From TrEMBL:
Residues 567-704 form the GGDEF domain. It comes from the Bacteria. This is CRISPR system single-strand-specific deoxyribonuclease Cas10/Csm1 (subtype III-A). It comes from Botrimarina hoheduenensis. It holds the Pfam family Csm1_B. The keyword Nucleotide-binding applies.
Length: 818
C-alpha cells in the first residue's frame, strides 16, 4: 500500500508575511547595542514614525525600532508579494503600530505574547550591558531550591556568531566595550547576509522563512532579547524573534478584516508535541549488522560499510520528528517559525486553534501514524500530544510553567496508549508484535536496507540536503529517500534548485539555504590515520573514506599524540539527569516561553554543534552514533574515549554555568571490534544505568560507578602510574606485578564498601596490605609522584579511582613488547 501525503495547503500569505516581520522586528537591537550611527536625515524622517515618545514629550524611546527600519532600508531586503516599504513598516512599527493596519497590530500583539505579556512600552533600553546573556542552563532549579538570583548563575555569553564554537560556552562577564564590538561585527555580518538573500529574488515565503531562521540563529543566538534595566537578559534575541513570528502567524490566521487594537487581538492556540522513541534501539538493534564478524580478515569488506550504515540510520531517525512537524505545518499552510524546537526526537509546534487548522492537523496526524506503521512497522515509537485549546493567558509568565507541564502529562499518557487498535482488528498487529503477510519488519526488508546503504555512502561527503514534497506515484531515485512524504537527497556542493536546501552546519551553509544541525561525526581515513595504522597488516581504507571499527580500535593515542598499541573500542553513552522534570518544574515561576525554548535549543546545540566541533579538532577518530537533545552515544578508540569522557563532563559543567541541578550521567565500556553493535549498546546502557542508580552525576567504568571528580582524578593517576612503569618501554615484571596488585587492592576496597550478606561490615585489611606493599616495594625517592598519589588513595574513603587508573594502565601496557 502506497500512502498519499495529505495535500500541501496553500501557504497562508499573511501568516508568512507577519512571521517574517516578527523574525526581523528586533534586528535593530544589534546595531543599537553597537551604537552604530544612523544618518541624521534618516533619523529626522523616520524616528517619530516608529519610536514612541517618552513621558517628557521631547525624546523617543525604543531606539532599536529605528535601527530595524534603517537596516532593512540599507539592505533593501524584501519578501515575495510584499513591497520593501511595507515590510519595513511591519517589522519596525511594533512599538508604534498604525491603528489602521491589522498586520502591524498583529506583530505588536505577538511581541507582547512572546515576552510573557509584561512588556513596558516606555522602558529605557539604552544602558550598556557587559554581562550579555544569562547562561540558559544556569537558570534551571528544582522548586525546593532557593530562588534564583542573577549572582552566580549569570555567566555572560559574548555576542558571537554561531560558527565560533570556541566561544559557545558561558564565560566570565565581559565589559560593555567588548560587547559593543561584538554587536558591531554581528550587525555587519547580518547586513551582508540580508544583501545576499535579496539576490534570491524568486524565493517563496516558505523558503524565505527557513533562510532567515538560519541567518538570525547565526547572528543572534547569544544576544539578549532585552536590554531594559528592569528585565533580566534570560532570553536570546533569536528565540524571542522566532516566537514573535510564531504568534504572529497564528493571529494572522485567526483575525481577518478590519484593524483592531493590539489588546483586542485575542488568540486561541494548540501546542502539539511529536516524540519519537526507541531511537538508539533502532540505530543499533537486531536489524543492524554486526560491527565485525569473528574473523576480521574475512569480514574486512563488509565492515567497511558498517559505519556508513549506522550513520545512515542515525541521520534517518534524526530527521523523522523534524519532518513530521514540517508535515503538519505543510498541511496547515503555516511557516517554519511555528516549529518552536526539534531536539532529541521531540518537536514542539504552536498552531492557531481554528476549525480548519484542527481538521488539517487531524489529517496530518493520521497520515504520520499510518506512515510509521506501513514504513517502519512500529520499529520506532510515535507519541503525539495535542494540548487543550489555550488562550493568551496560558503563555503569560505566571501560567507558562503549568501550560508546559500539562502538555508533558498528555505526552506521557500518549506514550502508554495504543494508537494501533484499528490494526489489531484488521489482524496485522497482535500483543506479541507485528504481523503481516509479508516477511519481516519493513525496516528489515532489502529495499529499505539498500536505500539506507546508498544514503550512508553519500553522507560522509555531503554538506547539505534538498527537501521537496514527493511527487505522487513517482518512485525515488537511488540518490533519494522518502520520509513522511518528503524526498530527501544529499549533495556535496550548493546547486540551484526548486527544492529548499538545508546545510548540516552553519560553517557549511551558503546564501539561500536553511540549517538542519546534525551530529555527523564520521571518522574518515586521513594521512594521520594512515601513519598510525602503518604497523598493522590491515587493508586500510582509501583517503577520505570512512574508517572501519577494526581500524578505529587501533587508533588510540596518548596526550602527546603517540600511538597506543592495544586494539580496543571504547563506547560512551550519556544523558542529562532528570531533564524532563527540570524543564517541567525547574524553569521557575514567572518564566517566559522564550526561556524554555532557548534552554532546549541551547542544550541540543551543545551536543550537535559545540561537541561535534571539539571532536573534529581534538578527537578526530570518534564516531557519533547519536547526539542530540540530552542524549549521547559515541564509539571510538578506547583510550581516546577514556580521556574524552572527562572532558565532556568538564565542557558540560561550563555549558550549565556550574549549575548543580543540571548534571550528566554516563557509562563507559571497552570491547573488541568483533562485538556485535547490539551487544555493545546493551553493555553501554547497563553501565549508564549503573551510574544513574548510584546517585546520578556519575560515570560508570564497566561495573564500577564513581563521581566525575573521582574519574578525572583516576585519569591523572593512571598517567602517573604509567610513567612510573616506564611509559610502556622496558617495563619490568616487578613493576607490572605492582600494578596488578594495585588493581587487586582496589577491588578489595570496592568489595569492602559493599559487604556481602552476612558479613560483619567493611574491612580495612586492604589498606594495611597496600601500605606495607608500598613501603617495601616503592621507593619515595625513586617514584615521588606515584608514592604521593598512592598515599592519597590510602587516606581516601573511595578507592574506585585506583581501580580505574590501574585498569587503564594495564590496558595501555598490554600493547607494548617488553
Amino acid at each position: 500500500m502506497k500512502l498519499s501525503a495529505p495535500p500541501k495547503a496553500e501557504s497562508h500569505k499573511k501568516a508568512h508575511w507577519v512571521a517574517i516581520a516578527g523574525l526581523l522586528h528586533d534586528i535593530g537591537k544589534l546595531s543599537a547595542a553597537a551604537k552604530m550611527p544612523i544618518p541624521q536625515s534618516y533619523r529626522e524622517a523616520n524616528e517619530a514614525l516608529v519610536c514612541p515618545l517618552l513621558p517628557d514629550g521631547r525624546s523617543h524611546s525604543h531606539a532599536h525600532a529605528l535601527h530595524t527600519a534603517w537596516l532593512l532600508d540599507e539592505t533593501e531586503f524584501f519578501v515575495e508579494g510584499l513591497s520593501q516599504a511595507e515590510l519595513v513598516k511591519l517589522a519596525a512599527n511594533h512599538h508604534k503600530p498604525d491603528g489602521d493596519s491589522l498586520d502591524q497590530n498583529i506583530v505588536t500583539r505577538a511581541d507582547r505574547l512572546a515576552s510573557g505579556h509584561d512588556r513596558n512600552e516606555v522602558a529605557s533600553e539604552d544602558r550598556d550591558i557587559g554581562e550579555g546573556l544569562y547562561a540558559p542552563l544556569g537558570l534551571l532549579r528544582w522548586p525546593s531550591d532557593t530562588a534564583v538570583t542573577s549572582d552566580g548563575v549569570s555567566q555572560g555569553l559574548s555576542a558571537v556568531s554561531l560558527e565560533r564554537w570556541e566561544e559557545y560556552l558561558p564565560v566570565a562577564s565581559r565589559d560593555a566595550a567588548s560587547y559593543r564590538v561584538g554587536c558591531d561585527k554581528l550587525t555587519k555580518d547580518l547586513m551582508q547576509d540580508l544583501r545576499e538573500l535579496r539576490l534570491e529574488a524568486a524565493e517563496s515565503c516558505d523558503r524565505r522563512v527557513d533562510q532567515l531562521l538560519l541567518v538570525l540563529q547565526r547572528r543572534m543566538h547569544a544576544v539578549p532579547a532585552s536590554r531594559a534595566r528592569n528585565n533580566e537578559p534570560d532570553v536570546t534575541l533569536f528565540d524571542h524573534s522566532r516566537l514573535v513570528g510564531a504568534f504572529a502567524a497564528c493571529l494572522a490566521v485567526l483575525h481577518e478584516g478590519e484593524a483592531k487594537d493590539p489588546h483586542q487581538l485575542k488568540g486561541r492556540y494548540r501546542l502539539v508535541e511529536i516524540a519519537v522513541g526507541g531511537i538508539q534501539r533502532f540505530i543499533s538493534g537486531s536489524s543492524a549488522p554486526q560491527l565485525d564478524e569473528d574473523d576480521e580478515a574475512s569480514s574486512a569488506a563488509s565492515s567497511k560499510g558498517l559505519a556508513k550504515r549506522l550513520r545512515a540510520r542515525s541521520f534517518f531517525v534524526g530527521l523523522i520528528s523534524w519532518l513530521a512537524a514540517r508535515r503538519v505545518l505543510s498541511a496547515c499552510g503555516l511557516p517554519a517559525t511555528n516549529l518552536i524546537h526539534d531536539v532529541g526526537g521531540r518537536a514542539l509546534l504552536l498552531l492557531p486553534s481554528s476549525p480548519l487548522i484542527m481538521s488539517r492537523l487531524d489529517q496530518a496526524i493520521a497520515y504520520i501514524r499510518d506512515w510509521f506503521w506501513l514504513e517502519l512497522g512500529n520499529s520506532l515509537r510515535l507519541d503525539i500530544a495535542v494540548s487543550e485549546e489555550l488562550s493568551d493567558d496560558a503563555f503569560s509568565r505566571k501560567q507558562m510553567p503549568a501550560t508546559l507541564r500539562a502538555l508533558d502529562d498528555r505526552l506521557a499518557a500518549a506514550r502508554y496508549a495504543n494508537p494501533y487498535s484499528a490494526r489489531i482488528s484488521h489482524g496485522d498487529w497482535q500483543e506479541t508484535g507485528y504481523v503481516s503477510d509479508r516477511e519481516g519488519l519493513p525496516t528489515d526488508r532489502k529495499a529499505f536496507l539498500d536505500r539506507l546503504r546508498d544514503l550512508g555512502g553519500r553522507l560522509p561527503k555531503a554538506r547539505s540536503f534538498w527537501l521537496i514534497d514527493s511527487p505522487a506515484g513517482e518512485a525515488a531515485s537511488s540518490a533519494e529517500i522518502d520520509i513522511l512524504g518528503f524526498r530527501v537527497s544529499l549533495h556535496e556542493e550548493q546547486q540551484r534548485s526548486l527544492a529548499q536546501a538545508f546545510a548540516f552546519s552553519p560553517e557549511a551553509a551558503r546564501s539561500g539555504e536553511g540549517l538542519y544541525l546534525t551530529a555527523t561525526r564520521l571518522p574518515l581515513h586521513s594521512k594521520q590515520s594512515a601513519q598510525l595504522l602503518a604497523d598493522y597488516s590491515l587493508d586500510t581504507a582509501e583517503l577520505n573514506e570512512p574508517l572501519t571499527f577494526s581500524e578505529l580500535a587501533r587508533l588510540s593515542t596518548d596526550d602527546q599524540g603517540q600511538s597506543i598499541a592495544q586494539p580496543m573500542l571504547g563506547v560512551l553513552k550519556a544523558d542529562v539527569d532528570h531533564l524532563g522534570m527540570l524543564f517541567g518544574y525547574g524553569l521557575g515561576e514567572g518564566v517566559s516561553f522564550g526561556r524554555y525554548a532557548g534552554a532546549a535549543r541551547y542544550l541540543d546545540t551543545f551536543f550537535k554543534g559545540f561537541l561535534m566541533d571539539r571532536l573534529e579538532k581534538q578527537y578526530p577518530f570518534i564516531y557519533t552514533v547519536f547526539a542530540g537533545g540530552d542524549d549521547l552515544f559515541l564509539v571510538g578508540p578506547w583510550y581516546d574515549m577514556a580521556r574524552l569522557a572527562a572532558q565532556i563532563n568538564t565542557w558540560f559543567r561550563q555549558a550549565a554555568a556550574g549549575n548543580p541541578c543540571v548534571t550528566l550521567s554516563a557509562g563507559l565500556v571497552f570491547s573488541k571490534p568483533t562485538t556485535p553493535i547490539a551487544r555493545l549498546t546493551e553493555a553501554a546502557e547497563e553501565s549508564e544505568k549503573l551510574a544513574k542508580n548510584s546517585g546520578r552525576n556519575r560515570i560508570a567504568f564497566g561495573s564500577v560507578s564513581l563521581s566525575w571528580q573521582a574519574y578525572s582524578e583516576a585519569i591523572d593517576l593512571q598517567r602517573v602510574i604509567f610513567a612510573a612503569a616506564g611509559g610502556g618501554e622496558a617495563t619490568t615484571s616487578q613493576k607490572s606485578s605492582l600494578i596488578y596488585r594495585l588493581l587487586q587492592y582496589s577491588r578489595q576496597a570496592i568489595e569492602s564498601d559493599t559487604p556481602s550478606e552476612g558479613a560483619q561490615g567493611p574491612t580495612l585489611k586492604w589498606r594495611s596490605q597496600m601500605s606495607y606493599d608500598l613501603a617495601r616495594n616503592l621507593s619515595p625517592k625513586e617514584f615521588p609522584q606515584l608514592h604521593e598519589a598512592l598515599s592519597q588513595v590510602l587516606t581516601s574513603r573511595d578507592a574506585r579511582r585506583l581501580y580505574v587508573a590501574a585498569s587503564l594502565t594495564l590496558y595501555r601496557l598490554r600493547g607494548f613488547k617488553s
